[in-house]
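In full, the data:

***
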Amino acid sequence: MAYDQSAREDAGALRLGRGEKLGAVERIVVLAIIGIIVSLDIIGLFLPPGVEFGAALISVASTAVFALYLWSPLWATVALAVIFGLSFLSGTETQVLTAAAFAAGMVMRLGRGSLIFSYTGVFLLSASLIAFGDTRVPVNVGVQMILAAVSGAIGYALRLAAERGRRLERRLAEQVEKEHEAVLAERRWIAGELHDSIAHHLTVVALHVQMLDDPSVSADSQEAIRVAARKAMADLRFVIELADDGPRSEGPQTGDLGAAIDEARAEFEAAGHPVLTEGDPQDDRIPRVAEIVLARIVRESATNVLKYAGPGRVAIMLDVNDDAATLTIRSPLPQTPRRDLPSSGTGLNRMAERVIGASGEFSAGPVDDGWQVLAKLPMS
């Protein structure tokens, strides 16, 4: 595919459908050469005796006209044609034809296809006039033809080189943009992983801190805080290792659906919620990708239940068939607002992004007298 794309781009250069502009270095080189030659022509007006002023003026003009190519190849070519016509008055048409042969390189480097073909035709016509016309000095225009061919080839080679340079610059800019997007994506991924793991454990800690004043459950709350803190440190270490070119240890089993459901059940029961679980999270038909996503949904839903659910039963139901795996988590709506618990405000969006990113369906909202989270992932 990369070869085909390169071939199409080269074909675009061969069509010569648009004009070109000289680069900064090319402009400097061209102006320097023009300045040197014009200076020599002007000096030549005064040094040798018997120099015809008209011939010298035509020589200076045919060189200076090259500067017009820096702005408009069309008008520069028109000016060169006018100078060629005037050169017959002073008998310097061969000299101007030589300048026109060198100008072929500028036309090939800068001109559109129409200008190139027109210039070629006019140059051949001019060479024929000089070769077969009644000139003062018989000349062989073969040298000018060779000069024009070589100059045109050099101009076209420079045109191709400039096009390849622009193409490489575009590819480099695209590569830099892709690398920037990759860095941003990695940052978002790290932030999401930290949210999904650490935020959950912080919620458990904050919830049980509020229960420490009750002597009947303070011991259980202290144990729950200790376990949550240990898990938070383990998850943090796991995320850091993932960000550092992959884990160097086994770390927590963040994609184990069965373990995620067992952990959520234990946390719900510790918070005083009866728990109903249905379905087999170990069903071999569940793809690994779906298992990882569903485990994340259980984890994030558990965080939200611990934050917002009112008293009552929590149900975790998993329905697996040959077409899809559907996870449903239902919890009672809060009767009174809870005391402030930490919240990032991105939980539902994160769950939806995960499910939709795996070509699944996601919904979350009140159903009957409770709150329901539903994630459906295809088996394929």
